[in-house]
Amino acid sequence: MHGPASSGWLLVALCAATGAYCLLRMRSRVQEQRRAAGGEALMGFGMAVMAVPAAAFTPPAWAWPACAAVFALAGLHALWAARTGACHLHHLIGAGAMVYMAVTMAALPGTGDRHAHAQGGAGTPVLTGALLLYFVAYVLVAGVRLAPVTAVTGAGRGAGWGDRPELARACRLSMAIAMVAMLLTM
């Protein structure tokens, strides 16, 4: 979303690094971890693209509907995977939040700084507030779960990048923090 340039670039870096790490996690030997990592890589790179400051790049008119379509498909995939228990509800909510932000950005007129225009509304929409509450709660719970990291069986020297559950949790936590920052600019 389009806030101050310095924080925008930090958000781009965080999301891109998280997306790149998720690509590394796709090398896991466990199919469910590979599948989750793929969806999280898409989310990380998508968030990085959406966080680019407006002063650096104003996307063409078709970019926001394209983002909404990509994440709507990701949401449908997460919904389909949820029927077998192979996907967490968190992935579905994250994809929905991305669709919501892309649709909101597409609906705003003009090609300038959309952040300033979005802040001129009559308060925080209910959906934005609900998503903020969810992601703040997720950050707090995930942070508490991550804080007392102990050695996990099998996560020693022989474990690959994709088989480190504490790193996967840290990846999800960083994307949830980035989502909070993006939703705050709505």
Polypeptide structure, described:
The protein is an all-alpha fold and 186 residues long. The protein is globular and about 45 Å long. The chain is 68% helix and 0% strand. It has helices at residues 5-25, 31-50, 63-82, 89-107, 114-118, 126-146, 165-184. It contains seven helices and no strands. The model is unreliable at 111-123 (pLDDT under 50). The chain has one domain (5-184). The longest helix is centred in the N-terminal third of the chain and has 21 residues, at 5-25. The termini are close together.
Task: Set down the secondary structure blueprint.
Layout lengths: L4 H21 L5 H20 L12 H20 L6 H19 L6 H5 L7 H21 L18 H20 L2
Could you spell the SSE succession in H and E letters? HHHHHHH
The rounded distance between the terminal residues' Cα atoms is 7 Å
**Level of helix content?**
55-70%
| Count of DSSP strands | 0
- Helical segment tally? 7
Domain count: the total is 1
What is the rounded Rg? 17 Å
Q: Are there runs of 5+ residues with pLDDT below 50, and where?
A: 111-123
Task: Give the amount of beta strand, in percent.
Answer: under 5%
Mean pLDDT: 80
Structural class: mainly alpha
Described by strand count, sense and barrel closure, the largest sheet is: none
Looking at the structure, what is the overall shape? globular
